[in-house]
Design brief:
Blueprint (H helix, E strand, L loop, with lengths): L15 E5 L2 E7 L9 E7 L4 E6 L4 E8 L1 E6 L2 E5 L4 E4 L5 E6 L4 E8 L3 H13 L14 H7 L3 E2 L2
Antiparallel strand pairs: 1-2, 2-3, 3-10, 4-9, 4-11, 5-8, 5-10, 6-7, 6-9
Length: 156
């Protein structure tokens, strides 16, 4: 039995996509039994969308800005980011971002180890789906409680 990690090829537009508010997040890689080193997510954010101030002690993140412009808080620093900028966020560091300007932003988010961020997003997205059940209608998603399950804390 071969326990080696198998090569993978991901086509443009491929991956598992989720809609969280106005953001679209497409996971190009995710944790699997033979792979959990990191997760790669392509995030598409319309102007004025992003993530509030939060931190997570269980994984590191790297943000690579592909398109658009962002205001990015990294600890106490405020950064203005554009295409080609990269930010490394060590686990436990408070951070937030918002897409600024008129154009839609696109960034790659790499989290390590894999499997945590993608599981959080999948659970939030599934909790937002209206199944038609009367018990699901009108119920707001408690994303902070879901975040806490994955060791994440929203600070704002």
């Amino acid at each position: 039995m071969n326990n080696a990690v198998q090569p993978r090829h991901f086509l443009p537009g491929g991956g598992k996509s989720y809609q969280i508010g106005r953001m679209t997040m497409t996971f190009k890689t995710t944790a699997e039994p033979d792979w959990n080193a990191y997760t790669v997510c392509e995030a598409i954010e319309p102007p004025a969308s992003g993530a509030g101030l939060h931190r997570h002690p269980t994984y590191d993140e790297t943000f690579i800005i592909c398109e658009g412009h962002y205001d990015f808080q990294l600890g106490e620093k405020m950064l203005k980011l554009g295409p080609g900028d990269t930010v490394f966020v060590p686990r436990g560091t408070a951070h937030s971002f918002i897409c600024t300007g008129r154009e839609t932003g696109r960034q790659l988010i790499i989290s390590s180890p894999g499997g945590i961020f993608d599981a959080f997003v999948a659970e939030v997205a599934s909790s937002m789906v209206d199944t038609g059940s009367p018990s699901k209608r009108g119920v707001a998603t408690d994303f902070r409680a879901i975040a806490a399950k994955y060791g994440m804390e929203f600070l704002s």
